[in-house]
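Fold this sequence, please.
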Amino acid sequence: MAATNADRPLLRRLSQVYVEIPPSPLHRSRAASKHSPHVPTTTASRKENALLYPSPSQMSTVPALSSSSHKRSLDRSAEVADQPVTKKSKSNKSAASGIPQDKKLAGPSEEFPSGFAYCHQCNKKRDRAVSIYCTVKDTKGRRCGAKYCKPCLKNRYGLVLEDILGNSEEQQQLMQSDHVQGQGYIFKCPRCDDFCNCVACRKAKGLQPTGSEGNPQPHAQKATAPSAKRTRSGTIGQPSQAKHSSLQSLPKVTWTPVNLSLSLREAEERIHIREFSLRFASVLDISRTHQEELEELKPSRTRNAEEDDDALVPWVSETCVKSLILGLLSLFDVRGDNEKCLQAAIKSVRDSGANLNKIWAALANLRDRQNVLTPTPSNSRSPHFFSSLPDPLPPSESATVIRTRSGRSSVHTEGVNVGRTAQLVPVVAVLVNAAVETEAVREEIEAGIQKGKERARDAREAYRLENERFNQATGHQKAKDKKARMEHHKHIMADIDGVLKVSLSAYTHRISPLGRDTEGRIYWALTPGLIEREAALDRLRSYSQGRSRQSSSKVRRRPLVPSEEDRRALKKWSWFLAVWGTRPSISESIIDPGSEDDVTEDGEDEKRWWGFWDPDEITKLVAWMHSRSGLGNFGTGSDGRDLDDDSSKCDSDGTLDGRAHDTSLELSASPTRDELESFLVEVERYATLLKCRMRTDEEIV
């Protein structure tokens, strides 16, 4: 046992071998470790990694250090503990001026000498020298954090960075209350101005991004613009540049002002009266002459010059108003005392002799009696609405009142003196709204559905006969005549499609505008007139019977298509696309120099009526709206001859929506993508139909 215990120090010496590791020149401990087994220095007589035997003092510390791995871990922890701990200062997050600093605003580097920031538009890292920060403060005094780079400002919004930085001192003083001070410039970003078209802002409004789904070129162009020097194949930037050039090369649309001072609601009342009387002329028993008067919302010829200068826009003649009121009153089917009151009013209007005061006196008496009588319970459509008839519009200031012995007693005691037919427009509009629910109108709608199906069958037969004729002629014609024959065949097929749509407009049962664009403009397209409908029906029957010409039994007294001068004057509303709203900026639009109404360049924010009488200008308008709404490239597709779509208009069970109400409440303030696409298709189809209607007088052999 003694020998065994004596050999233990020797075995311990042999099992514990130490290697001298030189200290790192970068780190030096503040105090030498007491338990360090290393020899602090080396000598020339001993190699660096020579085996060393522990000294007696070191041997006494061996039990404290159980293993070499434990020693190394202690040495590492000691070195880490000796290093000074550095913390990121939080005081540099806000500058002395109170302007918030973004974490992304890093310091200078080789790529970004002035530091960098992320653009709100393209979300790319940009140099701070070519970026600008919004200076607008919110209600709590905090600065907007949006930043825009120079390329996005120019390409997306047409803004020049140098112009913004060079704001005058007067402008800065006027706007400094809403902006951060001490920046040397004033800038309200597109996001604060609510017209930012970046992906996030458009998505928040429910719109699709402008650079997605077939139209990524504008967004790709801005992403590749800073790295143009690193192009590899030379094709990265070409598609975006081509798209950008196509957007810039869009022609300016010519906006022609309509010489009409009616508001949207006032004009829509006259539009609904015109469309209702034209659609149900057979049950209203209105003459052709009175139908032609309703083609113009404002007559081109007035009786005197005073009517042109009045604030009250002239309307139709007195006999036309009398015919309208008599036809509308005759549609109501009532019983009992209500029937007696209604028949008395009809007799008074018929005996009025086109005296407007007498006509209104009869309607006012009917309204007063309805306030006393109880509506018939058995008939839900009794004319109790007469009690809510509005008063006529007040006469104009320049109107002269002429009282005669016969007319003195005809004026209603509590009524307004009615000297112009325009004063009765609200009264007739209410009668039209009520007549929509009558049984006679509903029966006419059902009859129109069957007639529409007959017109669709005639068109199918006309297509079949024309295709057979073309196929037979193709086998016997020479090669040089094939192109001319093909053009002639396409012309006839397009004419059949056009006359079908015009004839189907006689059976429409819904009256509403085409739609609304992204900037709130409302678009109206009135249906063709009575004479044009009859001519289209006659031409469709001729095609279905194998004749390319219309029958010679009816000789036209006047051409169906107005002259270019008349169409440019924008008198007949069925021959142009009517738009209510503001005109675009001068850089995107042109005012027709030949228009009768004087419009200055400064009146861009004024809402009024505009007209597009040229189909080519309407096509340009559709292309412009495609570009502004971000729906992608505009390509004029073929309208096609989908007879199922045309006949479906007559097969639906919808009711006539002919009420003269506020369209701005019916249409959504911001149309969805589907609504916008459908609206642009309708405008494009109207341009195609208008071009076909203008060729009606051409002879097709």
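DSSP finds 26 helices and ten strands in the chain. Residues 219 and 279 are 49 Å apart (CA to CA).
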